[in-house]
Each structure stands twice: as structure tokens, then as C-alpha cells.
# Entry
Amino acid sequence: MTIEIAVVLIGITAMMAGLFLEAARPDLLVFFTLFVFLMLGFVTPDEALAGFSNQGMMTVALLFVVAGVFEKSGLIERLMSSFLADAVTDRGAMGKLLFPVSAFSAFFNNTPIVATLTPVVRRWTSRRNISPSKYLLPLSYASILGGTITLIGTSTNLVVHGLLIDAGETGFSFFQLAWVGVPITIAGLFYLLLFGRRLLPDHRSMIQRVNESTKDYLSEVKVTPEFAYSGKTVEEAQLRNLKNLYLVEIIRGKERISPVSSQTTIWTGDRLIFTGVISTIADLQKRKGLVVNTGTDLSLENIKSGDSRLVEAVVSHQSSLTQQSIKQGRFRQTYDAAVVAVHRNDERVEGKVGDIVPKAGDLLLLVSGPEFHERTRERKDFYITTPLEEQKFYEDESQGWLTLILLMALIGCVMIGWLSIFKAMVIMVGALLVLKITSPSEAKEAVQFQVLLLIASALGIGRVITETGTAEWAAELLISGLQPLGILAVLVCLYFMTNIFTELITNNAAAVIMFPIAYEISGEIGIEPIGMAVLTAVAASASFLSPIGYQTNLIVFGPGGYSFADYARVGFPLTMICMAVTVSVVYIMYV
# Structure
């Protein structure tokens, strides 16, 4: 081992620890690690920045635009709602949910699919008095399985495809991964239908649990004629920055004011609804003219009227909310919504709401104002998982159908070799802009630049691993230890390591770290490089053991009321199934 290799291993270990501990945003951590390696001279600037022009990364960017059109059209939501409406039995409903979702995920970004369908599933389960936890985790798993079938099923496939091209290989064909993806999808779905559903928990949603203990979340204070600040604003009345309390709504006769701004006026007779550390509400009684109403019957379902409504939102990995407290981020002003409660790992985060620093996966219970949905469309800070009271689709569904036809036509061109996947997506996005199905501003909003920065930076780190000899050193170490046990042992070890990295950090980072090692090993043990690439891509995508390894798992974590143990219990057999099938197919086809 050289000094360079030791430094690279220390740097990557530190990066992985930072990702696991959520020390900073994933894209910034990976980019900073790449910057350190660049400053140490391990790679040239051209090599470090090559990931920003990688075809796989650019294709992911274009696919974000296509996914944004489908999400806006509501086409997938309408189709899935119609499938579930005809379901008679629980198992039949799960089949009608999982098989179409896996098929959609083979061709579309699975993150918006799960984000869009989570409210649909919750609405369906609510009407039938079924726990959403029985369906949301299988929804995520089905989308992950389906994403392993095609080249565009997940960004990880495209990243590995780009790495293959950079290594001088031809890359994946459109259905190259289907030899593994189809068997593991079929086996995985039947496991979920026949056995996994029995292991799923029976949890209530956050809103249901909060409603059963409303007095722990909400308290009412009545404004009497003795209140000296009647006719003054909330800020002037010194009700803005209370210790451990947060004013979320004012009830004035039949009118409800929510969210409450600092300039909202307080009047005699107003009923002030607070959330936070309710045990400190008695401090308000020390103020003349404020009386705590202990006999009131508060319900979260009543904390909404007109343009205000109760909303659940899951904080995303790309969220800017994770870098500051709710108060520092000016949440109310930014989103036109007030935070009632924050749940993390299925437990309420105690303390003053405004002082809480959200983390990825946190479930926020919000009272939203009339501009809430418009403002959240402009940002990627969280996923809205609350079921709508009525069926609502965002745009003309004909645009969704036209986009689907265009996509299928271009995929056909890719399959017969007329176009590369990158050129096909360039034509696709160009057609969407020319036909005015999407606008330049909408296309820009759909692109998740933080994800692209993560992928491009991770690709640069992959180059570091190769150029410094770290990949060759790791490959020789693995081969010397495992080759006496046979090629199957090497394949199992590579799959296991990649899969564990995915659960601890992110799927794309795991793929980029492990691909150079797998590529070096392929030449040593006599297996085709494309086979090792398939194994790496599938292992990096098949994240079933924790909510932090994959975005779709994170989306359903809070709404399903899951714990880490739920993922491990249901996901471990699925992980073993996927590993056994993947290793077997790769061994048979590529050795």
C-alpha cells in the first residue's frame, strides 16, 4: 500500500462517515472530498471535472425534465387510482399496486412516482380503514425493483453506464440489465405478495396518532377585554418569539387565520391556537387578558378552513431545511405554512418547534396557507404525502399521453441502435420544449442540480480511486482472500459490499466507489466487465434494509410510521433473494 492509497482510503472513509452521520448535504460532502483529492494532486483538474460532462450524468439531468412532465400531468396518479378502485381483496389491491408500479419504474424516475402515489395509497387505505403501513413500504420496494429492468430505470444504471463508456467499454444496451432485473422483480413481488405482507407492521399515520392526543400538541388561549395589546399585531403583542410555543392559528368567530404572520392583528375575543411544549402554556396566563381554555375540544382536522389545510411533508435529502432551524429558515414566510409538529424515527421531536433543525426523512405536520402548494413546486425541500380530499390532477392529461408516446418511440430507436440513450433524451426534451408541453423555466425547476452535483463529484472520486491505484490494490486484496473459495464467493462479496455501502451512504456514491474495484477484478478472475457492471448497478440500487439508502424508502418512512426495524424485518429476505438471483445470473451469463 502506497501513501497515496492510504490517504485515499482515509478520505473515502471520512466521506462515508460524514454521509452516514448527515454532517452536511451529501452533494457538498462528496464535492468537498473530490476538492481535497484535487488539491493533493491525486488527479488533474480535467480528470476531476470529467464527471460533469459524463453522458450518464447528463442523461439523468434530461430524464428529470421528462419525469417533471409526467408528474405535472397526473397521468400515473389517475391510472393507479383506477387500478385500486377496482380492488376487492387486500392481496388483490397490493397486486394491482405493485405490478404496475414496477412497470412504470422501469421507464420513469421512481422518486416522483412514489411521491405522487403515496397520497393516492393513503387516501385509498383511509377509505377502507386499512393501515397505510401495509402498502407504502411495498410501494417503495416495487419501484426499486422495477428500476433495475432498464437502462433508464434509475440514475444508478446510467451512472454505471457512463463509467463503462469512460473505461472504453460499449456500455449497457437498453435492456441489458433486464436479464437480472426481470427475475429479481418477479421474485421480489411474489415475496411481497405471499410472505412480506405478513411481516408488515400495522401502524397509524402521523395525523391519526396526533389526533388521538391533540392536547399534547395544541392548546387554546382566549383573548379577554383586559388584554393590553388588543388591536396590535402579533409582533407588537410579543406573541411572536415565545419560549417553546408557536402560534399556528387564530379563530375569530367563524373566521380562521392560518398561518399567522407577525403582522396579523390580535383582537378581543380571539382564540389563539398554540403548539410546541404545551406544558409551558401556563406561562401565558401570567399575561393579563390571556386565559388558557382547558375545556376546549381541539382537533387537528378543524385547524383548517378555506385556503388553509393540514399537510404532511417529508424532508428530502436535497432540502435546504437541514442546514438551519425552522425559525432561521423563515419557514412561515418561505412556504406560507406553520409547523405544528416534527416527527423523527417515529417519535415526536420535543422542544420549541422553531428551534428544531430538520433532518432528511423527518415528517413535518403543517398548517398551510393559500400559497403553499405554489411555493413548494418551486423548491425540492420536501415531498407532500397528504392525501387530497378530492381527486385532483395538475394539468391536461393528454400532454402526459403525448409525452409517453414520444418516449416509447425514442426508446424503440435506442433498442434498434439508431440512437444512443443520451441523444434520444436530448431529442425528447427538445420535442417537449418545441411542442410547449413544458417551458424552459419548468424544465429548469424539474432538474435536481444537487443530485447532479453528487453524481458528477462521485464520478470524479471514482477517477481518483482508479488513478491512484486504490482500485487495483483493493481488487488484489479481495482476490487473494476469496479466490480460493471460487468466483461465486468473489461475486457474493462484491454484491454484499456494494449493497452495504448503499444502505450507509447513497446508491450513486456506492456504485462509483465499487465500480473501479469490480472492473479491476473482472480481468483477474476471467469474468466479462459488463457482468461486473451489471452486478454493481443492481447491488447499488437494491436498497431494502433502511430508509436512508434510497429516496423512495425515505418518502414512505414517516407517512407509514415505520421504524428502522420494520425495514430490516421486511427487507432482509428481499435482499437475500435479490443477491442470490443476481449472482446466479451474472455467473451463468458472464463467466
Q: What stands out?
A: The radius of gyration is 26 Å. Confidence is low (pLDDT under 50) at residues 389-394. The first helix runs from residue 3 to 21.
